[in-house]
Automatic annotation (TrEMBL):
Keywords: Magnesium, Transferase. GO terms for molecular function: transferase activity. InterPro entries: Bifunc_Mopterin-bd, MoaB/Mog-like_dom_sf, MoaB/Mog_dom, MobA-like_NTP_Trfase, Nucleotide-diphossugar_trans. It comes from the Bacteria. Residues 171-302 form the MoaB/Mog domain. CDD domains: GT_2_like_f, MoeA_like. SUPFAM superfamilies: Molybdenum cofactor biosynthesis proteins (SSF53218), Nucleotide-diphospho-sugar transferases (SSF53448). The lineage of its organism: Bacteria, Pseudomonadati, Pseudomonadota, Alphaproteobacteria, Rhodospirillales. This is NTP transferase domain-containing protein.
Length: 536
């Protein structure tokens, strides 16, 4: 790949290496320069510009990242769209993140241009949480490096997957000695139930018996059939021949391992009775704070076998005594939300009067056997934007009728005659409070593809100053536009029929232009001629 300054005559098709601001020109790095851009640079007085030019043996950053992410993807993982050489991968379900550490390390050693970053192995994840990101460092990667990464990622089982938590049933037995308060045992039951339910499991029964070998064996026999048996002793297990392991063996169980290099959690016992796993709990399991018991319980709940070797490999990172990552934060601490997919909603503005169409409502025009508005909405529904809100106004019932049965919300704007801003206001008011942003779509743009919307969502990143995402084709801006929720209050104060377009200039520093291969972002059906062209 070429990187360096080039004269203007050689710039067309090159990638801008650094942002350029001079006079009326404001181009951000990563822009693929068009002939019009080169003319603008010349008019601004520039003679050379630093650019990157991929060669025939290079793969563009977005294509390279998308190919590697697709090869890495395994069970219960969703791949986002590529933008600026980055593709994020997200968990589809609650469970444990399981990367093939050796293969990820090998992939990262192939070439400095190709990088994969992940959460730690066996990290518990929630649906929508980011688990990994593929980033191409320069503007392109060598084709051989990309192909080598694909081979490494595809060798055997997928290199990245999520093992979903299963709905385990569990029984808890607590032994007791004279003087032990019922409140202590009751708290253990509550904490254990909370742990299991957090992973979709259930504590189906709990019982208490004397802290003795024979009494414990009898309690185990009476525990019934469950997926997991948990035993908490009145005193900590200090040896393989102590009361809890002896009682388990007397009940027909086999001790697999005692102890673990995790603190708190050292005194954990792993056993089995027939096919049922049995855990002898360390004293710290009575507390909701993170400990070694949680790590083993999570793996069992996710259907991942836990062997002696697995336990003894937990030492690195196993010093948990003073870290802030706990299921129930201490008083005064602030829980940090893990990286996740942005919650981006979609507004489809379908309230207009079609004043340039000669009296008919263009949204109801038949296009290939369906009303035009249906084609627009189906494209939005096929994107990653959720939820979808459709704002109606003129001929509201007629516009709403063909949308019935689809997973969307319809909001009526009685003030539709006041212009686009009134519909925008009605739509914003209907959005859930937890959305991070919204893609504002026009109901008369049926050629906008789901991929274009997904690319806007991939570009959105408030931490990097990308809070307004505008699609472009050959440098021309189009619709829809993605807005961060920080602009909602300003958008709600707009008036007239111009929508939020005026805010783009006001907040130019927050705007990112997102190149797409979708001419539909420039195509709105405003006239009978355009409708005829669409039908053709």
């Amino acid at each position: 790949m070429f990187f360096g300054p080039l004269p203007l005559r050689e710039l067309e098709g090159a990638i801008l290496a650094h942002s350029v601001r001079r006079g009326s020109v404001s181009f951000k790095k990563g822009r693929v320069l068009s002939a019009e851009d080169v003319t603008a640079l010349r008019d601004a007085g520039l003679t050379t510009v630093t650019v990157a030019k991929p060669g025939p043996d290079d793969v563009g950053e977005d294509a390279a990242a998308a190919r590697i992410a697709a090869a890495l993807k395994g069970q219960e993982i969703t791949v986002g769209a590529a933008f600026t050489g980055r593709v994020n991968l997200f968990a589809e379900s609650r469970g444990l993140f399981v990367p093939d550490v050796e293969r990820i390390n090998a992939l990262n050693l192939i070439d400095e241009s190709v990088t994969v970053a992940t959460l730690p192995a066996f990290a518990p994840v929630e649906p929508g949480q980011m688990v990994a990101t593929v980033k191409i460092i320069p503007f392109a990667a060598p084709r051989g490096a990309v192909e080598g990464a694909e081979v490494e990622a595809s060798a055997g089982m997928p290199a990245l997957r999520v093992a979903p938590f299963r709905p385990l049933t569990a029984a808890l037995i607590q032994t007791r000695l004279p003087g032990v308060k019922d409140s202590v045992l009751d708290k253990t039951v509550a904490v254990t139930r909370q742990r299991l339910e957090a992973m979709g499991g259930r504590l189906v029964r709990d019982s208490r018996c004397y802290h003795g070998e024979a009494a414990l064996a009898d309690a185990i026999a009476a525990a019934g059939r469950v997926d997991l048996l948990l035993i908490a002793g009145a005193s900590a297990i200090t040896d393989r021949r102590d009361v809890l392991p002896a009682g388990i063996e007397r009940a027909g169980g086999v001790i697999e391992h005692f102890g673990m290099p995790v603190d708190p959690g050292n005194l954990l016992l792993i056993a089995h009775i027939g096919e049922t796993p049995v855990l002898g709990l360390p004293g710290c399991a009575r507390s909701p704070k993170l400990n070694g018991f949680d790590w083993v319980l999570q793996r069992i709940a996710a259907g991942i076998p836990v062997t002696r070797a697995d336990v003894m490999r937990m030492g690195v990172g196993g010093l948990l005594a003073e870290i802030p990552s706990r299921p129930l934060p201490r008083a005064g601490t602030v829980a940090v939300e893990p990286p996740r997919a942005p919650r981006i909603a979609a507004l489809v503005l379908a309230a207009g009067r079609s004043s340039r169409m000669g009296g008919s409502n263009k949204l109801l025009a038949d296009v290939g056997g369906e009303p035009l508005v249906v084609r627009t909405v189906e494209s939005v529904l096929a994107s990653q934007a959720k939820p979808v809100v459709v704002v109606t106004g003129h001929m509201a019932e007629a516009v709403s009728a063909p949308l019935a049965g689809r997973p969307l919300t319809i909001v009526h704007n009685p003030s539709f005659a006041d212009g686009l801003s009134a519909s925008l206001r009605a739509g914003l008011a209907a959005l859930p409070a937890d959305v991070d942003g919204v893609v504002v779509c026009l109901g008369d743009m049926p050629r906008v593809t789901p991929q274009a919307i997904d690319r806007l969502i991939a570009a959105y990143n408030p931490l990097e100053g990308r809070t307004v995402c505008v699609p472009t084709v050959h440098g021309k801006r189009g619709n829809p536009v993605l807005w961060d929720r920080g602009f909602f209050a300003e958008m709600a104060k707009l008036s007239g029929d111009a929508g939020a377009k005026a805010l783009l200039a006001t907040h130019a520093d927050q705007v990112v232009e997102v190149p797409v291969e979708d001419g539909g972002i420039l195509y709105d059906v405003d006239t009978p001629d355009l409708l005829a062209e669409l039908r053709g």
